[in-house]
Amino acid sequence: MIFDSLNNCNKYFETHKNFEKSFSFIKRAVEENLPVGRYEIDGDNVFASVQEYISNFESDGSFEGHRNYIDIQFIVSGIEVMDVMSVSKAISEISYDSAKDIEFFKNNHKAGRLVLEAGEYAIFFPSDIHKPGLCFGGEKASVKKIVVKVKV
């Protein structure tokens, strides 16, 4: 997992061959204030969704993990909490769906916690699971987020 601000994204371009184009899309999406929707960047290799929602209470969230895609979750506006942990410590709750590349895991109170504000992102690899979309300080808030999916 990586947690950083958009100002430092170039530090991670060598981590994956498609990270540079992923962050270029994020920068363009922010500059152009792209509306909610799905965006093709490089076919099935890299695509994104712009999302707007109200953050959830912790009890309403679920841990999720992916096997074939890396998630780059960038906060455009608002504040969000994400719980994170290693998939090696997780217990599956809903079996892996290969068509959607997602598996859900039981809640675990030993997870770490990230607080992301506008301009910050987290990168989740297949070795990480995450519980995104949680409210900060027990107060629900409006969030705009870009999730870029990068094929492993």
Layout of SSEs?
Blueprint: E1 2-5, H1 19-32, E2 37-42, E3 46-54, E4 63-65, E5 69-77, E6 79-86, E7 92-97, E8 102-105, E9 112-117, E10 120-124, E11 128-134, E12 142-151
Antiparallel strand pairs: 1-10, 2-3, 3-12, 4-8, 5-10, 5-12, 6-9, 6-11, 7-8
Describe the structure.
- This protein is mainly β and 152 residues long.
- The chain has one helix at residues 19-32; strands at 2-5, 37-42, 46-54, 63-65, 69-77, 79-86, 92-97, 102-105, 112-117, 120-124, 128-134, 142-151.
- It has a single domain, classed as YhcH/YjgK/YiaL (Jelly Rolls), CATH 2.60.120.370.
- The protein has a 6-stranded antiparallel β-sheet, covered by helices on one side. Strands 4-8-7 form a 3-stranded antiparallel β-sheet, with no helix packed on it. A 3-stranded antiparallel β-sheet has the order 9-6-11, with no helix packed on it.
- The radius of gyration is 15 Å and the shape is globular.
- The chain starts with a strand and ends with a strand.
- The model has no long low-confidence stretch (mean pLDDT 96).
| Share of β-strand residues | over 45%
Q: Work out the helix count.
A: 1
Assigned CATH superfamily: YhcH/YjgK/YiaL
Helix content: under 10%
Defining key terms:
single chain; 152 residues; mainly beta; Jelly Rolls; six-stranded antiparallel beta sheet; three-stranded antiparallel beta sheet; 51% strand
